[in-house]
Each structure stands twice: as C-alpha cells, then as structure tokens.
Specification:
Distance between the termini: 33 Å
Low-confidence stretches: 501-509
Number of helices: 18
Helix content: 55-70%
Order of helices and strands: HHHHEEHHHHEEHEEEEHEEHHHHEHHHH
Radius of gyration: 26 Å
Mean pLDDT: 79
CATH topology of one domain: Preprotein translocase SecY subunit
Strand order of the largest sheet: 4-3-11
Number of strands: 11
Shape: globular
Largest sheet: 3 strands, antiparallel
Strand content: 5-15%
C-alpha cells in the first residue's frame, strides 16, 4: 500500500536534489564540505538584503537558535526547514497522513514532501517578515514611483517593488541553507541545521564575552578599573552570565554521558557480542529544537501580525481612551492572543506566557528577580512569576510530546529497535531469540527514558534561559549536544579510515 503523499510525486520529481556520493567521502573531504557550508553561512549572515536599511537590522536574542539575523539574507534562517519538519512529523504521528517510514520508497517521498513544504514556507515566512515585521526599506525603484512621502505629518514608505525584491532575497537565503543542509548531511558531518545552530550560538557567546569584558559602563574591565570598594563584587556579578554558560555546558556534557547498556550476543557466533546503549538523552536535543522553533514561530506571528492591532469583541474601538486597551467594553482579542509593545516585544497575552524568559543584558540580577517576583503584565495584571511557571511547564510538556512523536516516526521505539537487532542477528544473552522478547526488555527502559530525557532537556533549556547565559540556555544546550555528536562522528571517521578491514566488515565502505 502506498502513502497518502503519493499524489505529490509528479511535483516532487521536479525538485532539485543534492546527489548521494558514489563512495563515502574521506575525512578530509568531509571536513572540507563542512567548512565550505560554514563559510557560506557566515557570509550570508553578514550580508544585508539589498533594499533593507542597515540600521534597521536589530539584534534579536530570539534569533540565536534559529541561525538567523534580522535584515540579512538569512533573516528567517532555518525556521522554514524546522517548521516543515514539525508539521509533517505531527501529521504523521497523528495519522493525518498515512506513511510507512520503514518503507524506503515512502520514506523518500516523505522527505521530499518535507523539502517541498520547506520551500513554500521559505517564501511565506519571508513575505510575512518583510510585510509585517517593520523592516525599514530603502526604495530602490524611484523611476517607478517608489519613494518616501509625508502623509498626515508622518513619513510613509511606498516601495512595493523593493518589498518583492527583499522577499525574494530572504527566501533564497533560506533555500540556500536548505540545500547546504543536504550537502552537509551527505558530504560533511552530521546535520547542516545543527551545524548552523551551533555556529550562530558560538558567535553569540563570543560576542557576548567581548561585551562582558569591554563594555565601557558595565564591563568587567570597567568595574576593575574604577578602583572602588565594590569593584571586585561588581566584576564578579558582571561575569555571572559567563559562569552560568560554563555551568550549563558542564551539566549538558554530564547528561550526554549517562546511559544504560543492554548486553547483546550474536546468535550464530558464540562468545561474541556487543552492547546496545540507551542514553539518558535518547532523543538528543531534537525535542528542544522542535519546541523552540514552534514557540519562536508563534512569537513571530504575534510580533508581525498583532503589533498595533485592536480586535474588539463585545465592545467598540475608541482611539481616545488613555489606556493600552482601546476597546470600550468587551475584550480586545488581539491583546488576549498577544500584546506587542512599542519595543516590538511581547508583554502580555496567551502567547506571551508561552514565550521564553530572558534576563536583560543590562541590569543586575537583584533587579531582574525583583521584576519577576513583583511585576505584573500591563494589560491583564497577571503576576510575572506566573509567566515563569507557565512557560517552564509548557516547555517541558511540549518537549515530552515532541520526544514521543520523534521516537515513533524515526524507528527508535522499542518495537522498531527490537526488529533492527533481530535482523542484525543479535539477541539478549539468556533469552530466546525473538524480537518480541527483546521488545519487552527494551520496554523497561526506552519509554521511560524518552519521557525523562525529553522533560530534562525542556526543563534545563527553560531554566537556563532565565540565567542570562550567553547564547541563551537553549542555544547552549543545543550546541553542546551538537558538538558532542560531531566529535563522535569525527572519532568514528578516523577509526574507519585507519582500519579498512573493520570498515569493510561493518559495511562502512
């Protein structure tokens, strides 16, 4: 039986694809292609889209883990790629689309459909961002009537052709990232998406360290140079984001090493065997990537669509009211969904309460925690500490859900693993060779570890974000896991290059 995506095959055949290498690339070739992908990423990161005013490219802390930079060619970054994966994984997990990922042909169709959806989202997100996110455009086509006009005493920009050009550039930037991800996956190390996230976070950490030490008013050097009695305590307080960054790295590194090993033996070769490791982070940082991408896209929707909107339900709009809520009687639906302030940040509403909490880059921790304990939201007056509890709980639950979906749709469940081990001729010593028995043993570990590991990464990411760690706590969590697996890939590649006979036996060549 085919999948419910088969009707898309005529379209999917037209999509460009990076060909699979005829033979496995050597270590030097993999390093070269990975370096090329990183160089192209950083080049696009620093090139502003033609038609965007450079000063309008504000540094958005939330862009760190989406490998993007507002106003650049990768303004929407890997957002469309990850969002496409989220949609299809959820649809497959909920059986909205029928697809058997154990069937190679259906799996290829599923992956091609994911690429098609990502391409569509590249243009859609680029259009939404340029039209609604208030990027300041520089009219490029004056000969066609574009320019800056004064209307009711305010400057208005009329630049429809420039808008289309900027949308095209940003969409193409994300498309290039999409195909660079394919290049890295087939010719480099690991995943291109993971590589770009790590690159963006690493740059944020380095940039944050420079600010911590060199800021003329709040930097470590400035505090020590003041010579006051509080110079040393103030310098230590200024270093707290860096200290938290190191602490989070150590916690994640330790968690990466926690695992349970199931002994295995070859059924036809007595005395030989192996071990199947079930890591505490069995689903790695995938739940955090998916959860963060979903939350950031919801926040992007609020910032781009809801800013300045007043949708009055059960009342009427009155612009003369001296309150933030311009609805006389009734409810302002736009504010209920998400209230966006003049600083282009969420400050209230349902989407605000599931949005990340970040310590301000400036200001001491005492004021920050006082704000959490004593402040209320501007529209509905809900205490800020409720925001903390709701966001942390939502992040944990969302990670558990995505962890479960990921295991079920990527052949990592107890049943799938048991069948894979049986096909490889492996069994658990002391038990009869039967995949049902292996599945029963694995059921004692995998379901619980998936829940605990997913909840752990969600909880750690949410709390770490509140510490003000450089590159965000979520970004550090992702980066450490990515670099850990990259190290393992490098180690394995050296092993297979050194021991050709072992590589041939294991089918690595």
């Amino acid at each position: 039986m085919g999948s419910s995506l088969d009707f898309l095959k005529p379209i999917l055949k037209l999509l460009p694809e990076v060909s699979t290498p005829s033979k496995p690339p050597t270590l030097s070739e993999r390093l070269m292609w990975t370096a090329v992908a990183l160089c192209l990423f950083f080049i696009m990161y620093h090139i502003m889209a033609l038609g965007v005013q450079v000063s309008a490219a504000r540094a958005d802390f939330l862009q760190v883990i989406t490998a993007s930079k507002i106003g650049s060619l990768i303004t929407v970054g890997i957002g469309p790629i990850v969002l496409a994966s989220i949609f299809l994984q959820l649809f497959a997990g909920a059986k909205i689309i029928q697809v058997d990922l154990s069937d190679p042909e259906q799996k290829r169709t599923f992956q091609a459909t994911q690429k098609l959806l990502a391409i569509i989202l590249c243009f859609l997100e680029a259009a939404l961002f340029v039209i609604f996110a208030r990027l300041t455009l520089v009219p490029l086509f004056g000969m066609f009537g574009e320019g800056i006009f004064v209307e009711d005493g305010k400057e208005m920009i009329y630049a429809p052709y420039t808008t289309l050009l900027v949308i095209f550039q940003i969409a193409m930037g994300s498309l290039i990232l999409l195909y660079l991800d394919e290049v890295v996956s087939k010719y480099g190390f690991g995943s291109g998406i993971s590589l770009f996230i790590a690159a963006g976070v690493s740059q944020a950490i380095i940039g944050g360290m420079l600010v911590l030490f060199t800021d003329p008013s709040t930097g470590v050097i400035a505090h020590l140079a003041s010579g006051s009695a509080e110079a040393l305590p103030s310098a230590i307080m200024a270093l707290l984001p860096l200290i938290f960054t190191v602490a989070i790295m150590l916690v994640v590194s330790y968690a990466e090493g926690i695992k349970v090993e199931i002994p295995l033996a070859f059924s036809r070769a007595t005395g030989t065997g192996s071990r199947f490791p079930i890591k505490f982070l069995y689903v790695s940082n995938i739940p955090v990537i998916l959860a963060s991408a979903l939350i950031l896209n919801l926040q992007f929707f609020a910032l781009s669509v809801l800013a300045g909107k007043h949708w009055c339900i059960g009342g009427e709009f009155d612009p003369n009211l001296q309150t933030l809520n311009k609805c006389r009687g009734g409810i302002n639906l736009a504010h209920l969904i998400g209230f966006v302030g003049t600083d282009h940040q969420l400050h209230d509403g349902l989407l605000y309460f599931i949005s990340p909490i970040y310590r301000p880059l400036q200001g001491d921790y005492g004021a920050y925690f006082s704000h959490i304990l004593n402040s209320t939201t501007p529209i509905f007056g809900i205490p800020e500490w409720v925001h903390v509890i709701v966001y942390v709980s939502f992040m944990v639950v969302l990670c558990i859900i995505f962890g479960q979906f990921w295991v079920e749709t990527t052949n990592m469940s107890s049943k799938d693993v048991a069948q894979q081990l049986d096909k490889a001729g492996l069994q658990i010593p002391g038990f009869r060779r039967d995949p049902r028995i292996v599945e029963k043993v694995l059921d004692n570990y995998i379901p619980y570890i998936v829940i605990l590991g997913s909840a752990f990464v969600g909880l750690l990411a949410a709390i770490a974000d509140m510490t003000g760690a450089l590159g965000t706590g979520t970004g550090i969590l992702l980066t450490v896991g990515i670099l850990y697996r990259l190290y393992q890939d490098l180690e394995n590649q050296r092993l297979f290059d050194s021991y050709v006979s072992l590589a041939n036996i294991l089918g690595k060549r």
